[in-house]
User: Fold these one by one.
Assistant:
Number 1:
Amino acid sequence: MNTAVLRQHAEHQFAEELAELKKVDDRTRPANWQLSPWAVVTYLLGGKLPNGFEVTPKYIGNRRLMEVAVATVATDRALLLFGVPGTAKSWVSEHMTAAISGDSTLLMQGTAGTSEEQIRYGWNYAQLLAHGPSEKAMVPSPMMEAMRLGKIARIEELTRIPADVQDSLITVLSEKTLPIPELASEMQAVRGFSVIATANNRDKGVNELSSALKRRFNTVILPVPASEEEEIAIVVKRVNELGRALDLPAEPPALKEVARIVRIFRELRNGQTEDGKSKLKSPSSTLSTAEAISVINNGMALAGHFGDGVMRPHDMASGMLGAIVKDPVQDQVVWTEYLETIVKERSDWKDLYRAFREQV
């Protein structure tokens, strides 16, 4: 595997952990699973193995949610990971698939332009014109490959896909078969096949799932981190990982800076200060954990390439404003009010206040 790629697939990046889990995993595995459900959850949440090897956590949160998600895929039900943007839906989907199938690349990205052929199969038109419909002329979709191999197919942003295209999944999910009328045949799913889809509630009302399709999914809602400490832990972990992967020439930020960014995001997202004493207006942006991570990585890049390698308030100020102020009128009012009534009044945030004022 080429280690110079910008982003390795989960099964390559964490190959050592998956291999160590296989060594100690003596529990029952469903057909075509690389690991048992217990081992998959251990891979997701981390922990020390009987041989002393330490598995790093991929998801920091409620263990029961991960157990329900993994148990769903072990049945004949498809899994829908649902929640606000930035709650690690895609991250969990990728790592679950890597641990179960050993291959997270059977992926379909949902967009307004996703067609039924991308879900089912397409055709090599040169072969089709030369020889007519045949298996040789067929271009299988990731869904078809997952059915053939008994693996997990991933669908990102399911509710971005047009409703009539979504419904092409119903036969696959209920009958575990994909009709191929052009060849008067079908593709039947091999045991181990399942589908993990993601959707975010900001797209609610865009392309609602039909009731028939909803019934084919077991929905697991991934919440925002329950506490400030939990969110800080997530941000610190991912910032360190991404900093190493991107070779950013800056040292990881001090915990104090991470805590302040997380505090701002949580307060604006929740519409009140963390102590509950002041009510706040919320901006139109989601202010997710993922965006906090992005802001810090951007600040590290600025500090590393244009500073002394230590991230300071002015390095993250512009990134924070870009994340918070999406609507230049409405969000600017919300942000200015928060800056003058909350940030300015905190005695240990004076440097942060000055950095933000310089950006206004």
Number 2:
Amino acid sequence: MKKSAKDIIINTLREKSATKQIVYDNTLEAFNILKKVLKEITIEYNKELSNTDSRVTLEYKDRGAFEAEIKVAGDILIFNMHSNIFEFDKESGVWKISYINENKLASYSGIINIYNFLSDSFKYNRLDDLGYLIGRIFINKEKHYFVEGKRQLGFLYNDFGNSIIDKTSIKNIIESAIMYSLEFDLLVPNYDNIKFVSVAQMKERINKSKIKTGKRLGFQFEKDGDDIV
């Protein structure tokens, strides 16, 4: 018997929409744990750095329901939870995992993005400076997770069908992100990219310290050789 529009809508709400709500709750729970871990790491590390230059200590800041940051010396890591739930593109390698093929609804995921900025970009309000997406945490309805990202972020946390997001795994991810940001050095921009500047641009930049700065000018997340997808 052919299903009516009402039947299709009801079934969709019962299955897919209800699943998305569960995924959202799981992702928000993980993000709230992440905030607590960031605060704990800040306290823990600063105790070890008590006799060190204060400029290299850690600072934690809660930026609202879906955002938090930790400043580590000259770097800032911003953790941002997206309020929506996503499905993977059909070309994604996720669909090759038997766990997903056996349970299609398990592919719906919440996302927590990890961005790396220079702390001076915020300190001096350099709005033209660049930040970099260094990792994305995907969490599903069963609290399984994996991380798409740079270096250790991409290959240490990619067992989607088995790994469960918890306080320990969140701390490991945060520490991996910190290590990556500290190793990800600021490079001198190409001379040809900055050799011309107008008087107006220079006045504006001098007045507002707005010379564009970033660890990798022209960097694109999806084209970097360190990515694990």
Number 3:
Amino acid sequence: MVKMARCCVALLIIAGCGGEGPYRMTVESHGTKIVVGKFTRSLLESDSSFSWYRRNYDAFTPDSASIAYLSTAAHDVHFIVVAGTWCGDTKYELPKFFKTVSLSHIPETNIDLYGVDRSKISNDGLTEKYGVTRVPTFILFSDGKEIGRIVESTKNGMEFDLTGLLKKK
């Protein structure tokens, strides 16, 4: 019994050290998992409840010219992404965002990903600080200043909208 308790404590410590950030996960009565707080895309990739992520990531092929541009222009850009794992727009746009930044070799350290519940109000004041009222919201920063954002959906496609925002920088 003591060995079992030690094992459980060790697993909790290991699970807490995964670099995912301080998030909590709830499950609605109909089974939808909602992530609230800071987390990383590895959670979406590893949890089968988020099968929409892998499916939409794999189905997306971004424009190669946009990827080439982003590969050089976006390395000093910091992204704050506010998403709802319950939200149809997030399920559509978030995988496209991550495929675009992955192919562009933008470091994961440049991206802060936050989940919100259906109220879209964060516990830490982040949504209020950045005026986020709809999800997903992708906010781009350069030298600490906001240079643009994509709210809810793209106009021309994720890679084209990101490229357009950076060209205005």
